[in-house]
Amino acid sequence: MSEEVNEPENVEPRKFAKKYDTVEGLESAYEGLQKKLSSELRVPDSGASPEDWASFYSKLGRPETPHGYLMPENTREREALDPMSKVAHEQGLTKEQWEALSGVAKSQLVKDTEKDAAKIEKMREEWQTSAKLRYGENLDEKLAQAKRTLDGLVHENPDINSVLTKTGLVDHPAILDLMIQTGETMSDDKSPDQAVSTPGGDNIEAIVNEGLKLVAKGSPLNPRHEDYRPDYKRFMEIQQILMDNGYEGLTDPRFRV
């Protein structure tokens, strides 16, 4: 005996039910809802593949490669931000997020550059004051000698002027003395017998030439140079060899340039 189902009277059908007159209509609406839900952006779970994450980041707005991010035209800023852009791309940053992040980084770079420039300028002023006290009335003459030496080095290696000027080392007392003493040797008639060899087997002429080439290269005087450490070590070795053999290093007035 089947049990009859008593339907409540005066019950209005649900609003959404009025939209569908047939089962086919309801089925079609359901399929549309499924497609909509499946197209929505969802964060991949912990077991997602790199491809899943790449697809997710692309939908968020990440460029295809790090080159898709906007980069500054300034060379120093570009070099500083280049590795950061690669990390940003790996982490899925959108172009808008990158611009916000890189904007902060560029602002900090500008501040650091200004601080470095102010620090270099202060050091140069202190070194210039020191030179005035050391050379007194002969300062102009000494500076002219230093300039002649520097011009000669720049002729052989144009980059050295840029290095010394940008770092402020052109006014460093040790650099200035080296340039002045080297300039003085250009007109000095006294010259040691550079053809002789030291007890250690080093040829004086070869040693002096090697040292002058290092000075022209600028690396022993520039901590930022990629060859600074080995060239500085060799430069000091050359100075020691010359002093051990009775000379005053590369600035010995008996040497000709």
Give the proportion of residues in helices. 55-70%
Low-confidence sequence ranges: 188-197
Largest sheet: none
* Contiguous helical run count: 9
Structure summary, number of beta strands: 0
- What is the mean predicted local confidence, pLDDT? 76
Q: Could you say which structural class the secondary elements and strand pairing correspond to?
A: mainly alpha
Q: How widely separated are the two ends?
A: 124 Å
What share of the residues does DSSP label as strand, in percent? under 5%
Order of helices and strands: HHHHHHHHH
Secondary structure topology:
Elements: H1 23-39, H2 50-60, H3 75-90, H4 95-135, H5 139-156, H6 159-167, H7 173-185, H8 204-217, H9 228-244
Task: Describe the protein's architecture and organization.
The chain is an all-alpha fold and 257 residues long. It has a domain at 123-251. It contains 9 helices and no strands.
Question: What would you say about this model in short?
Answer:
The protein is an all-alpha fold and 257 residues long. The chain contains nine helices and no strands. It starts with 22 loop residues before the first helix and ends in a 13-residue tail after the last helix.
Notable features of this structure?
257 residues, mainly alpha, elongated
